[in-house]
TrEMBL record:
Matches recorded under SUPFAM superfamilies: ALDH-like
Organism: Thalassospira alkalitolerans
Stored PROSITE patterns: ALDEHYDE_DEHYDR_CYS, ALDEHYDE_DEHYDR_GLU
UniProt-recorded name of the protein: Aldehyde dehydrogenase
Family classification: Belongs to the aldehyde dehydrogenase family.
One Gene Ontology MF term: oxidoreductase activity, acting on the aldehyde or oxo group of donors, NAD or NADP as acceptor
Keywords: Oxidoreductase
List of catalytic residues: 261
Length: 495
């Protein structure tokens, strides 16, 4: 029976209330516990999610382990066709999923959530087409020996995803893992459990039972047991540095591979010859103001040549001031909300710290006037100028709509400022000079560098950082081969 799109997200969360998805079925938590999920735009409960624990993890992993052998034995192209078919079906649900993620995450439907739902579907189609690339090599080791390598799946993969872009970050873990012949147990973020649960439910129309399972719950109670489970052979995690270290330590005890994407404090360098119109648009988009700055790749450190600095700042402030903050499900809304009260308080605390550190605070846009949104997690975007390079707002990841603008004189100074960070996820350079662009891309300490643009993660663009931004790459053929298979060397003596 096919699953039809449900465009009323409030109705949909009630249908998914209090459920995991294990072995193709929606089931309650073993302990019978649930927890509230709030609409961050109103602060009101929209439904309850199942609170998974070690018992639920054990059931889901056991089911996935049982299903993995038959899944791995299917021809790779057959697995790829099924995953690609999931993508095609998900394309029919883009509007539904966009509205659902807007409701539970607070991200504006028009500028953020609908776009994310589209990329989700595209990611499954993309990886489905890569199944034929799961191939090894022949090695000229000895004329009397046939020496070759093969690619084999790892087993059960634990995928732990965050709340800021749950659909995209689920897709770049689940799609390559499945195509490579693994089975997956997803642990959703406690703030955004329903959209990814719905995706898994939709995919059950195509996938064999047990191949893809999803649990909701909290980190220590559900995520921890998933990482530690003896039958989980690979973990892919996106989240904070602190939690990433915890995951890494737990995985190290079992000596299993881990992929970690842990955030950033990304620089944007605007040279004196930059196209100012494009650079302003790039700063607004790159800072992810429409996502309330809740992005690992947000261009939160904007370095502007002294010749352009004043005009750049003036025009940037004017542009951000035109963005409308409001109900995430309203088509006229540009900016939605912060995810929850704790994160909002953290962001507001950093804004206070910035002012105390002596930076000039420019508070922009306007809070919604609708009384129904009075308790929502809205924060006005802030652009700080006159920021000291060693200020906390310049060095620590805020994960909110807070950008710091710096002035520089020389190219070398800009590169030094850009690299003066513990993070190394993304960076952008804005210039018309080819030599400057190429030199900057070589010298910048980041894993994802762009010139004269600020794209978000896309299929087939290898994505991942250096330094505290994590380990490994995602969203590409490389990620499927290196992170979801292991290489076996085979030698046949022909003498």
């Amino acid at each position: 029976m096919s699953i039809e799109p449900v465009l009323d997200p409030h109705k949909l969360v009630k249908e998914l209330d209090g459920r995991h998805l294990i072995n193709g079925e929606l089931v309650p938590a073993k302990n019978g516990k649930n927890f509230d999920v709030l609409n961050p735009a109103t602060g009101k409960v929209i439904a309850q999610a199942a609170e998974g624990d070690a018992d639920d993890v054990d059931v889901a992993v056991s089911i996935a382990k049982k299903a993995q052998k038959d899944w791995a034995n299917r021809p790779a192209r057959e697995r790829g066709k099924l995953v690609a078919e999931c993508g095609r079906i998900l394309t029919q649900h883009v509007e539904e999923l966009g509205r659902l993620v807007a409701l539970e995450s607070g991200k504006a439907l028009r500028t953020e959530s609908r776009v994310e739902a589209s990329v989700l579907a595209d990611m499954f189609v993309f990886f489905g087409g890569l199944a034929s690339e799961l191939k090894g090599e022949t090695i000229p080791f000895n004329p009397n020996m046939m020496t070759l390598t093969t690619r084999e799946p790892i087993g059960v993969v634990g995928a732990i995803i965050p709340w800021n872009v749950p659909l995209l970050l689920m897709a770049i873990k689940v799609a390559p893992a499945l195509v490579a012949g693994n089975t997956v147990v997803v642990k959703s973020a406690e703030d955004t459990p329903f959209t990814v649960l719905r995706v898994c439910q939709i995919m059950q129309q195509v996938l064999p039972k047990g191949v893809l399972n999803i649990l909701s719950g909290f980190g220590p109670g559900c995520g921890g047991p998933l990482v530690a489970h003896k039958d989980v052979k690979k973990v892919s995690f996106t989240g904070s540095v602190e939690t990433g270290r915890t995951v890494y330590r737990a995985a190290a005890e079992k000596l299993i591979p881990v992929t970690l994407e842990l955030g950033g404090k990304s620089p944007m360098i605007v040279m004196d010859d930059a196209d100012l119109d494009k650079a302003i648009a790039g700063a607004v988009g790159g800072m992810r103001f429409t996502r309330q700055g809740q992005s690992c790749t947000a261009s939160s450190r904007i370095l502007v040549h002294e010749k352009l600095h004043d005009e750049f700042v003036s025009r940037l402030l004017a542009k951000v001031n035109t963005l409308k903050m409001g109900d995430p499900l309203d088509e006229e809304t540009d900016i939605g909300t912060i995810i929850n009260r704790k994160q909002r308080d953290k962001v507001c605390g950093y804004i206070e710290i910035g002012a105390q550190e002596g930076a000039t605070k420019n508070e922009l846009s306007a809070l919604p006037s609708d009384p129904k949104l009075a308790d929502g997690m809205f924060v006005r975007p802030v652009v700080f100028t006159d920021v000291k390079p060693d200020a906390r707002i310049a060095r620590e990841e805020i994960f909110g709509p807070v950008a710091c603008v710096f002035k520089f004189k020389t190219f070398d100074e800009a590169i030094e400022l850009a690299n003066d960070s513990d993070f190394g996820l993304a960076a952008t350079v804005w210039t018309k000079d080819l030599k400057t662009a190429l030199t900057a891309t070589k010298r910048l300490e980041a894993g994802f560098v762009q010139v004269n643009q600020n794209l978000v993660v896309q299929p087939n663009l290898s994505y991942g950082g250096v330094k505290l931004s994590g380990l490994g790459k995602e969203a590409s053929l490389e990620s499927m081969l290196e992170h979801f298979t292991h290489k076996k060397t085979i030698i046949l003596n022909m003498e």
